[in-house]
Amino acid sequence: MRKITLKHKLPAGLDKQFADELNSSQRAAATAPDGYNLILAGPGSGKTRVITFRVGFLIARGVPADSILLATFTRRAAREMVGRLGELVGNQAGRVWAGTFHHVGNRLLRGAAKDLGFQSNFTILDSEDQTDLLRLAMDDAGLVDKSKLAPKASQLQHLISFAINTRRPLAAVVESEAADQAEWLPEIEKVADAYARRKLASNCMDYDDLLTQWLRLLDEFPNRLEEQGRMFRHILIDEMQDTNALQIEIVEKIAAAGRGNLTAVGDDAQSIYRFRGANYDNILKFPDRHLDARVFRLEVNYRSTPQIVAFTEASIAHNQSGFPKQLVSARNDGPLPVVVATADVYEEAALVCQQILEAHDQDVPLGRMAVLYRNHYDSVVLQGELLARNIPYTVRSGVRFFEQAHVKDVMAFLRVVLNPRDEASWRRLFVLLPGVGPAKAGAVYQRIASEADPLKALATAETMAIVPSKSRGLFAAFVNDLNLIRATDPEHHPARAIEAVLKGGYPGTIRQKYDKADNRIKDVEQFAVLAAKYDSLERLLAELLLAGDVYGMDAAGSEDPQDVLVLSTVHQAKGLEWSHVFVVRLVDEGFPHRRAMDEPGGEDEERRIFYVAVSRAMNELMLSYPSTISRGGYGPTVFSTPSRFLTEIRHDLYERVVLEHEFDRLNADDDDDEGEPPWTGRPLKSQPDRDSKT
Ligand SMILES: Nc1ncnc2c1ncn2[C@@H]1O[C@H](COP(=O)(O)OP(=O)(O)OP(=O)(O)O)[C@@H](O)[C@H]1O
Asked: Is residue 315 part of a domain?
């Protein structure tokens, strides 16, 4: 039969946009022929731009927009790409299947849930619902109250989810991720089964099901596989380096069943989500899995100055594996990255704040600057300094420090000791005890409120009578903790008071009540470090809490409420860029993360995290580390080792800067060069510390 090919016209101006906005390698990748394509690209090389243009190209070539699947790492990325795509192809952009794998899985499963034994109106469990259901499953498996050493719900959740996302047997995951829990394996497996049964019975799916059930559909229902193969003529995956085994199995199955059109975009050197099950091999072995794959390389960095690019490339060159790339900057020269050693964490915080304010005085908006760190708790002391200096900031890596539940709990301990009539704080503490709800908490407060010494009144038989009998032991321990906290003279030594909180029963409460307990406990330790700067609890509370509204305020001369400094873990900074980037706490015990170093490939993964951090900077990059660190406020102070990620870099690729104190300068002999510090460099003036240090 004779065929007529319907020709589609490129929308007006699209040709010109391809010519004006893409360089030749970007254009070649965006307009690649059908088939398997891998676009390997360094940081700042326009990956987002290229993948968006490729979708635009496909639509312009006549591929129906609703037959394109564009899988992104975050929903925000999908929104941004669809917005940009709209500028290229108009309202067809909204018809593309763009979103995270979970988002797309959810849409597809609604129409196919019945095949899998679910109803199409299945509910998606949020993480709290998940924990509740898992606790019930633990009960089914006889794991509740069995032993204090038995795995907790949050740990089980992680292990079950990790096994699913890495497509490994649960037993192997328990062995490698939680060897100390291996004796509980039979129970853990029972919990996993009971949890799955309960989800099915209650017509609920968790996030992982949106992928596992999707894959099940493809594996067990050949008609569904064929349907999806037909439906998705082109599949594009952004951030390929952070996909997990499950995600890749799904898309590769669909592509193979359909037309075999799969374009993956990513940077192997930015693969940083191994802890969530991402598999570095997904990108590294793509050419091995698809022998006919074309590989495109984007090697022009539009983001960073040549100095920053040279530094970042010198860092990643120390990794053992990865695709070789030759990244060049398209920008004009800028200053060398700066490396500064500070005396301690307080000086580091003061230095970063001062540099930020100076850049701000030179018209760099706060919103174009970011402070990045490896661990969320590394930001605590800095947050204290920012609040004290009225510099507005937002924390991408989570809730601002003083708004977190566990920090509020610790504050409540301090507050009731300082002001035993602080009802809200008492109530907050009482409900931390098992069996005490808001009503009982109110009754206990009423009982002690009228007493001359409410704290003393806590220990009386009348008060105890209000507490449920099973909680009395813990209540007595809590009263004991409060007395120990009071004995530290918290009014003058707030750090000692926080350390007393840490020595009492509260860490146990954290483990019982909250997820990520270890990190929360580290937060509280860092809170003690911050508090050691204060010799008055009242001032600490006033300075840190009353300044809590500083977000979006017209502080530091900023006129735009959105113009706030960004604080972020490196992981949360993925894909973003700022004019000025400060990477802090670069000590060998923290960045690289100590735990990661014990795992095979751990150092390379940590170096990739460092690479992501430094490659966020467009114009200026400052890297700092405290020469001494202490665990708690009054804990022993030890010398730190600068991160290997700094010391391994060729010295001419950065500028070492020594800190000079203003008062040193005033007193110094004019040209006395004797006793030069071992690390010499351009002196950087620092303001004397606030006089609050104890
Ligand atoms: N051809 C180009 N001409 C000029 N600027 C470009 C070009 N391509 C990309 N850019 C700019 O370079 C910067 C980095 O681009 P983009 O964010 O897409 O990079 P990326 O490869 O996704 O980076 P990363 O992987 O580091 O997150 C952006 O500011 C973008 O607008």
From this structure: no
Say if residue 408 is in the same domain as residue 390.
no
CB of 303 closer than 6 A to ligand 1? yes
Q: Is the pLDDT of residue 382 over 50?
A: yes
Residue 258 marked as a ligand binder:
no
The whole-angstrom separation of Cα 531 and Cα 381 is 9
Mean pLDDT of 138-147: 75
Same domain as 22, residue 105: yes
- Pair 385, 416 in one domain: no
The CATH code of the domain that includes 53 is: 3.40.50.300
Task: Looking at the structure, tell me whether residues 392 and 425 fall in a common domain.
Answer: no
Could you tell me if 222 and 80 lie in one domain? yes
Ligand 1 contact, 44 CB (< 6 A): yes
| Ligand 1 pocket, residue 26 CB under 6 Å | yes
Tokens 């951090």, residue? 613
The response to whether residue 302 sits with its C-beta less than 6 Å from ligand 1 reads: yes
Q: What pTM value is reported for the model?
A: 0.81
List the residue whose alpha carbon is closest to atom 8 of ligand 1: 46
576 CA from centroid of ligand 1 (Å): 10
Q: How far is CA 305 from CA 370, 612, 619, 645, in A?
A: 17, 15, 6, 20
Q: Is 266 in the pocket of ligand 1 (CB under 6 A)?
A: no
For ligand 1, atom 7, the nearest C-alpha belongs to 46
Q: Is 495 annotated for ligand binding?
A: no
Total domains, the chain: 4
Question: Residue 341 is inside which H or E element, if any?
Answer: strand 338-342
- The reply, when asked if residue 509 is annotated as ligand binding, is no
Residue 9 forms part of a structural domain: no
Q: Give the atom of ligand 1 at the shortest distance from the alpha carbon of 46.
A: 18
* Cβ-contact 286, 38 below 8 angstroms: yes
Residues 354 and 266 in one domain: no
Q: Of residues 20 and 551, which shows the higher confidence score? A: 20
Question: What would the pLDDT profile of 177-200 be if each residue is shown by its tens digit?
Answer: 888 888 888 889 999 999 999 988
**In testing the pocket of ligand 1, which one of 50, 303, 579 has its CB within 8 Å of the most ligand atoms?**
303
The torsion angles phi and psi of 140, rounded to 5 degrees, stand at -55, -40
Band (397; pLDDT cuts 50, 70, 90) = low
Exposure on the CB side of residue 176, measured as CA atoms within 13 A:
15
Reported confidence tier of residue 690, pLDDT bands at 50, 70, 90: very low
When pLDDT is cut at 50, 70 and 90, the band that residue 141 belongs to is confident
Using the predicted structure, report yes or no on whether residue 76 has a pLDDT greater than 70: yes
Q: Where is the domain boundary, 523, 546, 569?
A: 546
- Residue 213 to residue 209: CA distance in whole angstroms: 5
With a 6 Å cutoff on the Cβ, whether 84 touches ligand 1 is: no
Tell me: pLDDT of 350 over 80: yes
Q: Are residues 444 and 493 in the same domain?
A: yes
Protein residue whose Cα sits closest to atom 25 of ligand 1: 43
Q: Is residue 505 in a domain?
A: yes
Is 339 among the domain residues?
yes
Helices 602-614 and 306-316, packing angle to 10 deg: 180
pLDDT in tens, 448-469: 888 888 888 888 888 888 888 8
Is the Cβ–Cβ distance between 15 and 57 less than 8 Å? no
47 close to ligand 1 (CB < 6 Angstrom): yes
| Residue whose token pair is 């998705």 | 232
Are residues 671 and 592 both part of a single domain?
yes
Half-sphere exposure of 638 (CA within 13 A, CB side): 10
42 is in an annotated binding site: yes
Cβ(52) – ligand 1 distance below 6 Å: no
CATH value at residue 467: 1.10.486.10
Q: Is residue 49 in contact with ligand 1, taking CB distance under 6 Å? A: yes
Measured from the CB, is residue 45 less than 6 Å from ligand 1?
yes
Q: Which domain holds residue 381?
A: 328-398+555-686
Whether 92 contacts 58, CB under 8 Å: no
Domain end point (choices 178, 202, 226): 202
If you measure from the C-alpha of residue 303 to the centroid of ligand 1, how many angstroms do you get, rounded to a whole number? 6
